[in-house]
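Summary for the funding panel

The consortium committed to producing paired sequence-structure records for every protein in the target list. Below we show the first two records in order, beginning with the earlier of the two.
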Amino acid sequence: MSKNSARVTHSYKTVGSCNLRLDIYRFADKGPQPAIVWLHGGGLITGSRRMLPAKQALTYLNGGFVLVSVDYRLAPETKVRDILNDVVGAYDWILERCEIIGIEDDRIALVGHSAGAYLALLAAVRVSPKPKAVVSFYGYGDISGEWANNPSPYYCQQGLLTREEAQMSIGKKPISSSSTRSRFKFYIYCRQQGIWGREIIGDDLDNLQNLRSLYCPVFSITSSYPPAMLLHGDQDVDVPVSQTLFLGKKLSSVGVPCQQIILHGYGHAFDVERKGLNDPVVSRAFDAVIDFLIQNV
């Protein structure tokens, strides 16, 4: 981060003993600006607001945005219904404090990575007023399909974990942040067993109509949905690129402006793996994201 940028942490919600926080990044010498609400990935099971890469944060700030990185409760201790409520609550908290934070009215975009992209896509259906734009990095809009509810060929190639090993990495009390390593065994186990959807959704998984209407944003997209940019690597073995292609097709079918960037030969988390933004292909994709946000927010 640059010397004239600042990060301020706030608590936006408390649930029992679980305190949910967000970080606000901005240049100290700037007036009101549009904002980006940034949501981390981690399979809804792991991660935190501090996963935001410093170089990406600075790129957003240099693009003329205030940046808000948000924690939300994690599964399986908390299910998606309540996780989404956290994201909506953070969004509302920010809207109510636009003037104090230094945000221009409701000029807000949602940007997410993987599970964070899923939450961004889903929140854009629920919040009011809607965000001006949504950016999905290797996200998904449909968790009712086989990819989310059958054993993953990729994760099954890794050493199979026992239920006991997986359970050791999680607890019983709600939490809102963790290191990736500390809980990732549980995610791997869920993907190996084909129970990830069950562990993050709960009993609502058994009702396909409710599952799609409540938890699959691709089935709730209408012409009022905000403009979207979707980025995905075509060699993604965690979230299939077909998820982005399906989303793009649905958005276009209802007349929502949508840009897609498919990175050939790239996998999941392409913006942080390999060379990150030092990779010319990734850097150009990120430049396109900034241009999209400037044009739409």
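The next record, for a separate protein in the list, is shown here:
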Amino acid sequence: MLLTLALAIASTTGSSRAQNADAPPAILISRQLSESRTLRSGDVVTLAADRAGTNAKRFRIGGVYEPMPDPMRFAQHRHEARLHLPDLVALTADRTQPEAADSITSINVALRDPADAAAFARDVSARLPALTARPINAPDDRTSTFIVLERFHLAIALVTVVGSSVFLLALMVMLVDERRGVVGTLRLIGFTRRRILLQVITEGALIATVGAVSGVAFAMAVQNAFNRFFQWRYDTTLIFLRITPDVVLQALVIALPLGMIASLISSWTLLRRPILALVRR
């Protein structure tokens, strides 16, 4: 069993690949730590749980791993090491309290039916009031942070959509007003208001579709460059931007009705005018 723990390197020795019985126990270090301290597999390092070097022990680097991307820690330096559980206990144990090495602070329990996690947590809390039991998918400070961010992004999106809709409506009104003579001519040759309105709505839907598709295509074209820049900036493999089918569908669902409504409102005010007012120069 391996646990992840960020540890300070008290000192680094030269490369040592001794394979005898007295060889230090093996550990894994993160890629960021390996690159920042110029370490590689086979090097022997001295680790301690604090900066003072208390209870320091020697370990041999058995390999380098890429840390799991964490949105809560993407701006932090992932200088970490993974130790075997007995080595970790021996390194962090308090020598003034011998029983500390035999104590635990948390237990993970796997249930046959994950749906019973909430009921199991309530039962444990009722039987052992001194313990705190909760499902691993229960909301915590991390998820609440993302909920706040999601609501903030939603508010920004709503303001952006409303503002762009007003701008789109103004453009459609100017466009329709410039075509006043064309609409009057169509009315004179027998086109009904309903037919003209249907044509205008169809045109607005096409324009909205082209705009939405162009926006999605632009986002898909730049997402790789966007991700690579921020992955380089923060030295992580975290994906910052991903265009999914749900995002594309949401963009189309929002764009089409807005385009059709803007065309309808801007055209209806023009179609209500008398024919002579439309063709008058």
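Regarding this second record: The two ends are 86 Å apart (CA to CA). Strands lie at 2-5, 8-15, 26-30, 43-48, 57-65, 81-84.
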